[in-house]
Amino acid sequence: MPAEEVFVALGSNxxxxxxxxxGAFDALExxxxxxxxxxxxxxxxxxxxxxxxxxxxxxxxxLETTLEPLILLLExxxxxxxxxxxxxxxxxxxxRTLDLDIILFGNREIxxxxxxxPHPEFQHRRFVLEPMLEIGGDRFxxxxxxLSYLIAQAPALELHKLxxx
Length: 165
Fold this sequence. Notes:
alpha+beta; Alpha-Beta Plaits; 6-stranded antiparallel β-sheet
């Protein structure tokens, strides 16, 4: 089976979030039959939603994998669990130690009870789109348009690339 290109969003806003996201990048490197082919910079942005919480640290990883989507999802959930994520006690759009979301999985469209690909909200999230552009170039996504177009259309959001003023 040929490898497929996958984009995974990483986010954290509990604890030392930058260290947690960097640790998650390292954990992605250890997933079987998968290799990391791109790592974006880390970005800081305000949390979305109505729940008061700390800013998020976000990033995106580009992977190549021969795993099936649900197997990769289980691997990502195991990484989240290793970083003390507890889904049962979370509020929707609430704070979390680590969030790993599959954004794109090759050209697949998946809509089942466990996984939705492309991610249903990615086109509205600059904190996903800008890191994707950084590591994947200005690609055209069928049904959505180019990444630069999506960034221009996304809701305004202050996004600060870490390591830059």
